[in-house]
Amino acid sequence: MDKRTDQIKKIAAKIKLLILDVDGVLTDNCFYLNDHGEEAKRFNVSDGMGIYLALRVGLEIALISGRKSKATKFRALDLKIKHVYLGVTNKIKAYQKLKRNLSLSDEQIAYMGDDILDVSVLRKVALPICVKDANPVVRKFAKFVTKTKGGEGAVREVIDMILESKKINPLELVS
């Protein structure tokens, strides 16, 4: 393990809240509109399992998205994510509210994003994370960049890394 990986794992071991952007992180950055203007999105099942595992061990999960979306709302309900902020253009305000409500410090929070609306929060948290296909400007703010693209298991990759840093075996959570 190199020095940078070791440093990231030390930070990850202290994380109590993982905040996720939605479009481009939990999805492949696409949505579909039918003839009636109804939206559909593609979510990754592996990411869902990662969120399930995270919640089982008490890791808080939150969504902060710049878009209001019924599909995202339904997915959050399905995954039992309690902290959901949709249609948020000033993400730092939602971040500060979450931090205050959960009595956490910046050092206990990770944020995963992909585009410029995410930068304000990426600058504040202990563990700023970007997906592999994040905007190049945004990637400069990340301490950790996933090997996987958004919507293709990147969230699971991050959760697995956090659980490993906390010395939690995911197999013990499902058996």
In short:
This protein is α/β, with parallel strands linked by helices and 175 residues long.
The appropriate CATH architecture is: 3-Layer(aba) Sandwich
Helical run tally: 8
Number of domains: 1
At the fourth level of CATH, the homologous superfamily is HAD superfamily/HAD-like
Strand order of the largest sheet: 5-4-1-6-7-8
Q: What is the CATH class? A: Alpha Beta
Largest sheet at a glance? 6 strands, parallel
Strand content: 15-25%
Walk me through this protein's architecture.
The mean pLDDT is 94. It is globular and about 50 Å long. The protein is 38% helix and 15% strand. α1 (3-12) packs across α7 and α2 runs parallel beside α7 (154-165). β4 (60-64), α3 (70-79) and β5 (83-85) form a beta-alpha-beta unit. The chain has a single domain, classed as 3-Layer(aba) Sandwich (Rossmann fold), CATH 3.40.50.1000. The chain starts with a helix and ends with a helix. The protein has 175 residues and is of the alpha/beta class. The longest helix has 12 residues, at 45-56. The chain has helices at residues 3-12, 45-56, 70-79, 91-101, 119-122, 136-139, 154-165, 171-174, and strands at residues 17-20, 32-33, 39-40, 60-64, 83-85, 109-113, 127-130, 144-145.
What attributes characterize this protein structure?
8 helices, two-stranded antiparallel sheet, Rossmann fold, alpha/beta, six-stranded parallel sheet, single chain, 175 residues
Layout of helices and strands:
Blueprint: H1 3-12, E1 17-20, E2 32-33, E3 39-40, H2 45-56, E4 60-64, H3 70-79, E5 83-85, H4 91-101, E6 109-113, H5 119-122, E7 127-130, H6 136-139, E8 144-145, H7 154-165, H8 171-174
Parallel strand pairs: 1-4, 1-6, 4-5, 6-7, 7-8
Antiparallel strand pairs: 2-3
